Automatic annotation (TrEMBL):
<protein>
    <recommendedName>
        <fullName>Branched-chain-amino-acid aminotransferase</fullName>
        <ecNumber>2.6.1.42</ecNumber>
    </recommendedName>
</protein>
<keyword id="KW-0808">Transferase</keyword>
<dbReference type="InterPro" id="IPR036038">
    <property type="entry name" value="Aminotransferase-like"/>
</dbReference>
<comment type="similarity">
    <text>Belongs to the class-IV pyridoxal-phosphate-dependent aminotransferase family.</text>
</comment>
<keyword id="KW-0028">Amino-acid biosynthesis</keyword>
<dbReference type="InterPro" id="IPR043131">
    <property type="entry name" value="BCAT-like_N"/>
</dbReference>
<dbReference type="InterPro" id="IPR033939">
    <property type="entry name" value="BCAT_family"/>
</dbReference>
<dbReference type="InterPro" id="IPR018300">
    <property type="entry name" value="Aminotrans_IV_CS"/>
</dbReference>
<dbReference type="GO" id="GO:0052655">
    <property type="term" value="F:L-valine-2-oxoglutarate transaminase activity"/>
</dbReference>
<keyword id="KW-0032">Aminotransferase</keyword>
<dbReference type="InterPro" id="IPR043132">
    <property type="entry name" value="BCAT-like_C"/>
</dbReference>
<dbReference type="GO" id="GO:0052654">
    <property type="term" value="F:L-leucine-2-oxoglutarate transaminase activity"/>
</dbReference>
<comment type="pathway">
    <text>Amino-acid biosynthesis; L-isoleucine biosynthesis; L-isoleucine from 2-oxobutanoate: step 4/4.</text>
</comment>
<dbReference type="GO" id="GO:0009099">
    <property type="term" value="P:L-valine biosynthetic process"/>
</dbReference>
<feature type="modified residue" description="N6-(pyridoxal phosphate)lysine">
    <location>
        <position position="194"/>
    </location>
</feature>
<dbReference type="InterPro" id="IPR001544">
    <property type="entry name" value="Aminotrans_IV"/>
</dbReference>
<comment type="pathway">
    <text>Amino-acid biosynthesis; L-leucine biosynthesis; L-leucine from 3-methyl-2-oxobutanoate: step 4/4.</text>
</comment>
């Protein structure tokens, strides 16, 4: 299928690239492709960025049949655009599609569309330390219909946002609150997918956490509320007694690409790492006996984010003196250096456009 390009006649003024918030500004173009029953995905095209028209009864507004992804582009010193493991994002989008009864996309075609889009909008890739072009592919159900069933039409889009850090704290450790009343995901639910509903259901708990002075909440399992799952904006890792531990993927945790990259890096360095069930009690016990050495989150937007304070019930666990730990710093440095091209990409993770 040919991807057509309609360039904007009115390029927008760029924001101050040295002082970028996360996800607020958008580049000049976007990628769109439509799906109609009987026709499949069709008309892949790059067009000027702008509002789209949808019927008020479009199914996405009512039953949230939608999926999304998040990845980043960087510009290396030789002017090349660098995408970090984009194939993994499109593969994961299809996993989410399957769960949300959305038709599968052609991953190679979408990657081609993304490459053309970032090439066209490469002037929008910020170069300041800590910034990137955050890329948001997503699919929405567009049928004008109020019955609950899979839509027969969809829109796949990719938009790009020159962005700064997700957490204003940067590499300063964040404070996290263990959520033990609300749950994010349940067995057999959609926790492993990137779908808006997972995030909508988490906002209330986040509001409460913010009111208490915390950045995010740490979710426990939806059955016993004993086992650690994820933060919502990131997966979570602990270093306990020399071993790095992260909750195993169990169907209710997102299979993060930064999570996967972190595990692969640790293995390549010979650092013991395990994916297993880990209870909040185990973390609390490790804190009490002095073996809770580090805690950090991983995510595309969050990159690697040290956790300096974990609060559970009335207990406040101050981790590594509220300073970034040695292994957390090493993973952060290695991943960001590979992403930006400052370090050789021995893992073969970067796609140069
Ligand atoms: C990402 O890290 O790309 C996400 O989609 C998480 C979101 C909370 C920004």
């Amino acid at each position: 299928m040919e991807i057509t390009i309609n360039k904007t006649q009115n390029p927008k003024a760029k924001p101050d690239m040295s002082n970028l918030p996360f996800g607020k500004y958008f580049s000049d173009h976007m990628f769109i492709m439509d799906y109609d029953e009987g026709k499949g995905w069709h008309d892949p095209r790059i067009v000027p960025y702008g509002p789209i028209e949808l019927d008020p009864s479009a199914m996405v507004f009512h039953y949230a049949q939608e999926v999304f992804e998040g990845l980043k582009a960087y510009k290396s010193s030789d002017g090349h655009v660098r995408l970090f493991r984009p194939d993994k994002n499109f593969a994961r989008l299809n996993v989410s599609n399957e769960r949300l009864a959305i038709p599968q996309i052609d991953e190679a075609l979408c990657l081609e569309g993304l490459k053309k889009l970032v090439e066209l909008d490469k002037e929008w890739i910020p170069e300041q330390e800590g910034t990137s072009l955050y890329i948001r592919p997503f699919i929405i159900a567009t049928d004008p219909f109020l019955g609950v069933k899979p839509s027969e039409s969809y829109k796949f889009m990719i938009i790009c946002s020159p962005s700064g850090l997700y957490y204003p704290e940067g590499l300063a450790p964040v404070k996290i609150y263990v959520e033990d009343s609300y749950v994010r995901a349940v067995r057999g639910g959609t926790g492993f997918t990137k779908t808006g509903g997972n995030y909508a259901g988490s906002i209330r708990a986040q509001v409460v956490a913010h009111e208490k002075g915390y950045s995010q909440v740490l979710w426990l399992d939806g059955v016993e509320q004993k086992y650690i799952e994820e933060v919502g904006s990131m997966n979570i890792f602990f270093k306990i007694n020399g071993e790095v531990v992260t909750p195993a993927l169990n169907g209710s945790i997102l299979s993060g690409i930064t999570r996967m990259s972190t595990i692969e890096l640790l293995k390549s360095w010979g650092v013991p790492v395990s994916e297993r069930k880990i209870s909040i009690q185990e973390v609390s016990d490790a804190y009490d006996n002095g073996t809770l050495e580090e805690c950090f989150g991983t995510g595309t937007a969050a990159i690697i984010s040290p956790v300096g304070e974990l609060s559970w019930d009335d207990k406040v666990m101050l981790i590594n003196d509220n300073k970034i730990g040695e292994i957390t710093q090493r993973i952060f440095d290695t991943i960001t250096n590979i992403q930006t091209g400052k370090e050789e990409d021995k893992m073969g993770w970067v796609l140069k456009v």
